[in-house]
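Hi X.,

You mentioned you wanted examples for the new student's onboarding notes, showing what a folding record looks like when two proteins sit in one file. Here is a clean example. The first protein comes first, with its sequence line followed by its structure tokens.
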Amino acid sequence: MVDHLGRAEELRERATKCSAASKDTTSPAFKACYDLLAANYLIQARLEEDYAAGTERIADEIRQVDEQWRRFSH
């Protein structure tokens, strides 16, 4: 199973590295490229976090329905 929160952390680290590289370069083209990469990594990180939150929410809902079903079936 994929660790979505761990993946999000890795993506945020990559975004931080790209932001640092953007500040260090003298080339406007490379600066724009690094900035775009950083923004994309942050979007991907947010998607991973949202997915993890959604799957956890769905799992909680399934557990609640399962518990209700057990109460009614006894």
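Then the second protein repeats the pattern, sequence line and then tokens:
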Amino acid sequence: MKNFELFVNDIVSQWRSEKKILMESAGLSGSSNRENGDLAENYVLRKVEKLKPKYNGMKSTGSQTPSDIFAVARRNGYFHIMLIQVKSSTNKSGIYKLNENDKKVFDELAKFVKKQIGISEHLKNYRKSAILISTGYAGVYRNEKPVKHNLIESKGFKIFKRNTTNLDMEKINKIIALTHKL
């Protein structure tokens, strides 16, 4: 999808200007919180970019939206935009899981992305295309010795549809759920 990166940068900027930042008190503690979060996001991004078909992914600048990772791929008859929230910890049982309020804010972002597709100059050539936007979660454990990341849990939450009347959604729902397993 041409101009996807420019589109995501606009989404992040607009979302941030409206002060819709996902707030949560959990996560890694200490001064290296941001650095450890970035490393976990890089790990998940590498996994996303290894998916077939090939996903073009990028991290949200400074985690300014509920989605840490934005990715897009051309699938059979539609584009799939994947929004992923990454949480990590050095304690396997301490990885934050999104609560219902977090998921509602995430849904707001997906609806916002869907709306912006229809008005963004960056994606004007895709306004009539079938596009699915899915939200999901990736929980990452960081083993300190040796330093290694492991995906502990990953799953999709919801799918938001645009121009999808001719698609077999029963089949596609399964494909997207599998895709979020990374």
